[in-house]
Design a protein that fits this description.
Strand content: 25-35%
Shape: globular
Number of helices: 9
Radius of gyration: 18 Å
Distance between the termini: 51 Å
Number of strands: 11
CATH class: Alpha Beta
Helix content: 40-55%
Bound molecules: ligand 48H
Structural class: alpha/beta
Number of domains: 1
CATH topology: FAD/NAD(P)-binding domain
Length: 260
């Protein structure tokens, strides 16, 4: 084996990370959250040639997928989302007509692999704590980031910024980006109704229908859409999350191209 001095390990990690971070300061789309909706959106946007950065506060991808159904290691997907499973090369078992069972571990790693292979980049252990805005006309034009460890430390540390044409809140039940915007930029008129109790089919349908632009430069996908519009939850069925990710990608691609 090649001998490696310890200082070289540090040197190349820091050099290559800094190289990436310099490129990440300006991207087309920031996706906040590496859950099912965020990673699906990342693949389709990257395939369209956009520069996409997924920011995930944990050290792992998948969001709510890995927990499966109450820690049972399977999740459900309904039609027409099996088309998306196929595009990510995820295997599924049709248990009833147009109803599919998927292995949770396979789903999370293949969504991540699909997004990466399409060209999206991921930052793990980093969280979005705020947005960047610009006036005239008022819009969201980026995010403020910090290492996840910083808020846990209790230290006062200022964030760093990323500029982007679109920011997607794909943070799940907490809708963290929309919540910040509703409090700190009231002029954008974002007001969260709160997620409703379970009614699976209604929740799945409405989340996909309402997925899209929330304010100039700001978009929502997945369970964040439920929190925003008062939509019922649906439990461990993920067709709506995948379709929501695909839809937000289409909406953003159209918006960015219209401006260009
Ligand atoms: C960086 C952040 C931040 C932040 C959070 O929860 P997710 O899996 O999100 P979705 O909407 O793609 O999928 C929801 C699904 O998993 C689910 O919970 C369902 C279907 N529930 C139904 C029900 O009835 O309960 O992923 C969100 C990701 C997570 O990995 C978070 O760690 C991450 O976002 N995240 N990352 N900065 N501020 N906040």
């Amino acid at each position: 084996m090649r001998e490696v001095r310890e200082d070289l390990i540090t040197k190349y990690i820091v050099l290559k990370s800094a190289e990436d971070w310099a490129k990440f300061t300006e991207v087309d789309v920031v996706i906040v959250g590496a859950g099912p909706s965020g990673m699906t959106a990342a693949k389709y946007l990257a395939e369209e040639g956009f520069k996409v950065l997924v920011i995930e506060r944990r050290l792992s991808v998948g969001g709510g997928i890995g927990g499966g159904g109450n820690l049972f290691h399977k999740v459900l997907v309904e039609s027409p989302a099996q088309e998306i499973l196929r595009e990510f090369n995820v295997r599924y078992d049709e248990v009833e007509e147009e109803l599919y069972v998927v292995d949770a571990a396979e789903l999370e790693v293949k969504l991540a692999a699909g997004a990466l292979d399409a060209g999206a980049r991921f930052l793990l252990g980093v969280m979005v704590e705020d947005v960047v805005i610009s006036e005239n006309p008022l819009r969201v034009c980026g995010v403020a980031l910090t290492w996840t460890a910083i808020p846990l430390s209790g230290l006062h540390v200022d964030p760093v910024f990323i500029r982007s044409k679109a920011v997607v809140d794909a943070t799940g039940h907490d809708a963290e980006v929309l919540t910040v915007v509703s409090k700190k930029v009231p002029e954008l008129g974002v007001s969260l109704k709160g997620e409703k109790s379970a009614e699976a089919s209604v929740g799945e349908r409405l989340i996909v229908e309402r997925t899209g632009r929330v304010a100039p430069g700001l978009y929502a996908a997945g369970m964040a859409v439920a929190k925003l519009y008062g939509i019922p939850r649906m439990g461990p069925i993920f067709g709506g999350m995948l379709l929501s990710g695909k839809k937000v990608a289409e909406v953003i691609a159209k918006d960015i191209r219209e401006v260009a």
